[in-house]
Write a structure and sequence with these properties.
Layout: H1 8-12, E1 20-23, H2 33-40, E2 48-52, H3 61-67, E3 71-76, H4 83-91, E4 95-98, H5 101-113, E5 118-120, E6 134-137, E7 140-145, E8 150-161, E9 166-167, H6 176-180, E10 183-194, E11 213-216
Parallel strand pairs: 1-2, 1-8, 2-3, 3-4, 8-10, 10-11
Antiparallel strand pairs: 5-7, 6-7, 8-9
Helix pairs in contact: 2-3
């Protein structure tokens, strides 16, 4: 079996100009800081689309990525802790599209499951419905939300084995699990790395079949 273990620099070199990039985490919880930092230091990529729940805080490297001018589009649900994302939204320098948090998660899940979209009543009668198709079922209106996929996903886990099976602890599971299913190339930043068979299959949160590269940090 070919080893999936690599360095952060080598892993993020898979990100190409114009790619869509998913970044896991909720603020600092479950955020793959070392992977994003490595990406910030590779300045050859631009025109990126970022899918992130909140685009982080000013203390995280994702803030520097957003500020670098290399991001053309952002899909998020909360940007209050990243003033640079808010500035891009107001100036139009990048396209920033906001979704209710559950809707964003479902769009990603639909992308990972190969679905054509999801129907949700959330946003009916508000600005969220602008430009979206509405479908009526049993006399109730729903918005059709299209699936989201990415070229590369950067996620964070507590432990990985040689096959790429991941354990993600507690609330760090947030967007990391669903993003692992919805990208062509998945890079996992982990704190512990063990031999294959040392993780109880009952404890696996992300099966190794979804994970292409593992970066051990700490």
């Amino acid at each position: 079996m070919k080893s999936k273990l690599t360095t952060a620099q080598e892993a993020v070199s898979k990100v190409k100009d114009g790619d869509t990039l998913m970044i896991g985490g909720f603020l600092t919880g479950g955020h793959p800081e070392n992977l994003v930092c490595a990406l910030v230091n590779i300045d050859s990529t631009g025109n990126l689309t970022i899918v992130s729940n909140d685009t982080g805080t000013q203390e995280l490297s994702i803030y520097q990525l957003v500020k670098s001018g290399r991001v053309k589009q952002i899909f998020a649900s909360y940007i209050g802790s990243n003033p640079e994302t808010g500035r891009l939204l107001m100036t139009g320098e990048a396209k920033v599209q906001l979704f209710p948090q559950g809707t964003l998660a479902e769009k990603i899940r639909a992308g990972g499951a190969g679905l054509g979209g999801v129907l949700t009543p959330v946003g009916i009668g508000t600005i969220v419905e602008e430009g979206k198709r509405k479908i009526e079922i049993n006399e109730r209106e729903y918005l059709l939300e299209m699936p989201l996929r990415a070229n590369v996903a950067l996620i964070k886990a507590h432990k990985a084995d040689e096959a790429g099976n991941l354990i993600i602890n507690g609330s760090s599971r947030n967007f990391n699990i669903v993003m692992a299913t919805a990208a062509d190339y998945v890079i996992a930043e982990v704190e512990e790395y063990v031999k294959e068979g040392e993780i109880d299959p009952n404890h696996v949160n992300v099966p190794g079949i979804f994970v292409d590269a593992i970066v051990k940090v700490g």
